Amino acid sequence: MSEVILPSEVAKRQHHHHKPAAIGGGLISPMTVVLGALVAVAFFFLGQRFIYGLGAVTNVNNGYPWGIWVVWDVVIATGFACGGYAMALVTYILNKGEYHPLVRPALTASLFGYSLGGASVLIDLGRYWNFWHILWPGYAHVDSVMFEVAACISLYIIVLWIEFSPAFLEHLGLKDAKRKLSKVMFFFIGLGVLLPSMHQSSLGSLLVVMGAQVHPLWQTMLLPLLFLLTAACMGFAVVILEATLAAVGFGRDLDHELPMLSKIGKIIAGVLTVYLVLRLGDIVVRGQLGAIFTSGFKSVMFLIEMALFAAPIVLMAKAANRKRLSKLFAAAGSMLTGAVLYRIDAFLVAYDTGPGWNYFPSVPEMMVTIGIIALEVLAYIVFVKKFPILPGQPHQPSNGR
Amino acid sequence: MYDDSAITFETDVESRFGLSRRDFMKFCAAMAATMGLPRGADAQIAEAITKKERPSVIWLHHQECTGCTESLLRSEHPTLDKLILDIVSLDYHETIFAAAGHQAETARLAAMEKNKGKYLLVVEGAIPTKDGGIYCKIGGKTSLELTRECAEHAAAIVAIGSCASWGGMPSTPPNPTGSAGVREALGRNDVVTIPGCPPNPYNFLSTVVHFLTFGTLPAVDPEGRPLFAYGRLIHENCERRAHFDAGRFAMEFGDEGHKKGYCLYKLGCKGPETYANCPTVLFGDAGPGSWPVGTGHPCIGCTEKGIGFAKPIHALADLKNQRPPVGYPRAVEEQGTGATLGSAALLVGVAAAAAGAGYKLVGNLGRDEDDDDQSQG
Amino acid sequence: MTINRRDFLRGAASGSAAVAACATLAPSRAEARGNLPIPENAVGLLYDSTLCIGCKACMSACKEANDLPLEDNVGEGLWDTPLELSGKTYTVIKIYQHGTMEHKDKAENGFAHIKRQCLHCADPSCVSACPVSAMTKDGPLGIVEYNKDACIGCRYCVAACPFGVPQFQYDTPFPEIAKCQLCKHRLDDGKIPACAEVCPTGATLFGSYAALDEEITRRKAMTPGEAALFPRRTVDSGDVHEKAAPEYIDDVYGDTEVGGTQVRYLSGVPFDKFGLPTDLPERSFASKSETLQHSLYGGLAAPVVVLAGLVAAAWRGSKNHHDDE
Lengths: 401, 377, 325
Known about the structure:
The complex is a heterotrimer. By secondary structure, chain A is mainly alpha-helical. Helix content of chain A is 68%, strand content 0%. Chain B has two domains: 53-229, NADH:ubiquinone oxidoreductase-like, 20kDa subunit (Rossmann fold), CATH 3.40.50; 232-324, Cytochrome-c3 Hydrogenase, Chain A, domain 2 (Irregular), CATH 4.10.480. Chain B is α/β, with parallel strands linked by helices. Chain B has helices at residues 13-17, 21-34, 41-49, 67-73, 80-87, 101-114, 143-151, 161-166, 182-186, 201-214, 227-230, 234-237, 241-246, 256-259, 278-281, 292-295, 341-376; strands at residues 56-61, 89-93, 120-124, 127-128, 137-138, 141-142, 156-160, 179-180, 192-194. Chain C folds into two domains: 10-34 and 300-321, no CATH class; 43-283, Alpha-Beta Plaits (2-Layer Sandwich), CATH 3.30.70. In chain C, strand 5 and strand 6 (145-146) form a beta hairpin. Chain C has eleven helices and twelve strands. At the A-C interface, helix 2, helix 4, helix 6, helix 7 and helix 8 of A face helix 1, helix 2, helix 5, helix 6 and strand 7 of C.
């Protein structure tokens, strides 16, 4: 028990945390060049898509109208971008100030995740020039789940930029504007928690209207709650992932952040437990327990999901594991893989519009998605090097990789 | 091309048939074409027809209107009647016989005796079977007795016309005389039937010529109809088919659609359930359009048992043949693109790279932590 | 440990989870939106598979009436050969075939046709799904209409429709959704849908929903094998033909499926043989989805309350921690 760090102690230890600072260093490195090349490939295929239509690049069809450009680029990518949401939730709403150093990097990832998620919607929209209809009175259809998702994501992207703007204002030396903004920031923070709660749950609700086309192991009225819980978990897991990768990638020291990360690991295990109880309980209540073992490939995918969600709970149950970055990272990785699979399964594997239809993403389709991820990582690298995002270090490393 | 110089006619074709040699070869080619025989068959046909020994033919008439004979005789094709009468030795035919009464019956019996097992029996008209078959008697014998007698030593039996094929018009419900076709009356299924009311002379002639040329009867369907003539639905070759496919129908006789030559399906055309080559061979060699549908009347299905003379003319046909392989999409069609080697490899590669990097990272971190633990401990 | 657990429980109970939970845990409100009824003046089609002779006149007329291009799936470029509804095809005649295919309208060694097209649901999933009101069902006739000028091409309707009807055009940079709109442009001119107009056997019959109801009842009361009259084009056109009554299966497709559809099917072969979904509940998916949405966001009541709580918490947090550094 003596090993457990009480929150008050953590707060005390972290009280002298360092202000965010830009890492600095050159932008050209093997990593950024590879990422840039991937982005260029994606843009080539996107050119084809806009000249010849979606079918020229993707394998989406009328049996599987949504492919990975929706499921990965929007549904999963915004889930990955929930770091800002998760950290804002614990830091500001649950009043845990000790997490504060993690907020800004998380927010940065969210900003790119959501901005690019919103942009990739445009790529996938067949009649993208009409996209503004979705928020335009007279066109907007408020009963549609998609309307809710689109409205909340659009608003949240704006809110994210506002939440993030202190970093810019700081960089630009606009102290006055920054001070004024900080006075009303609490409102945007509230909004910044409400909006993701709404649309992350609605990403699950999207499937409700598809009814019997979605396999009973996934189709339930609890979809919004299940999606929300996994989204929050994804947010927490991404914070761990991001901190680890930043530590390894930029050669940073994580000693200050480890206690926070270890508590986040505990939160993940807790939320996941609730999730698993709800999900399995719901399946039992709906009388679909048998389907877990009798649905062929879908059963296999379901069981893999369950294993990936259960693993972090087991890993994080031991206090010693929570203090080890490797275990935290493994738990976060398992959780994220599970959440990614949950979304892919719900939207693609469990979706069956009728016999005879097939879908598997084409190579160009995947290259576009990979390109978007590359763009996101590239932008993150550029930002943390140029803007004060990551917590400052006692001894600044000379440069990053 | 077929080299006809090699053919040496054993008899003088020109004088015997009153045909130029060129016209004769054209006739032979037409016969071969009607039966769908391969190139070169016309030479074989020519050779068979010009043989000195003409096969004996016994032609019986029962319950009928003689329309089959009439159509055969009055074909517009030059000298077709002459041909059919000259390539065979018609030893008994009530309509065109010069002899009468016992003289005729004697001739029949003599011919049957002389050509035992070699003569061709052609039956025209339905055979009444009710009440001992008393409803049609010739020379004191019922149709059934007469047919049985002639059939016994016939080399082949051909039933010409719908009546002889399955009963035709005389068998229309309630069928008071119990009329039946030759196959049914004799209980034999080796009888070739040439249904039609009247049948196309070419179909009959081709069957006979096939027999003369090859010594066998042509391939037939389960109803005994030669496949070369009855292998396809009228609907399949109909000149108005495009209107059917496009949904353009004559709604009543004389209306706008009827005048424009639209499909007659809605007027009760039985083309979709009737097997015959009417649209391709036409009638009477009178040029295009010389068949019922061509003249604006729906097909009544005269070559089809259960349709012609049985189903009302205005009743709609049921499509019989719906199985061309690409004609209809199946209820379930495979669509969309599944995993290809390339796409699957890319996905597996990316996933493996991510998993590998993660695993490596966990390992490295774990090692660092162990080092830390040791240095602390 | 106990403190941490309590912290966690507090976190889980408040904020995020509460928003979603209030919908799913409130069964009384979950019934807020029932199925939409069939509109009073609804029109529709009755497709009787036993009458269909597979002539495809409906497909041909549909293409002409709606100005749709030829679709070539066999590569010869001569014939319209759609395999399924598509971006170029609003209706398609498909075939069920089994064994020797000897008997029409029999499942065993038989064959039967099915006409695929929009069923014009009473409570359509596509309309509920569409975020920009491009899919609508607001006319008095209850036709599910599509407005390409509003459409953003998100394909949620394609994904949502349980019958796989709305079809997106993947082969053009300026795609639209393709789907039967019951020839509303012809109805405006006083004509009937092209497919019903040309059908030679009355297998596709146009009429008001009520009239078609009566016609279905009449047909199902027929004695199989006995001569019966079948109208063509519309129920009361007077253009009838006589035919032996077929043997129908009990189900009428579209009577109850997802709350009923205005286009209904009669058949001699069970509907699952045609690849149609037969396990659809009577409660429409649209009503379920909208009930969920209304419970969560009805009048924006729940979001505003939650927002107030969140903002209050954030304000308290910002005072305590001076987050602006």
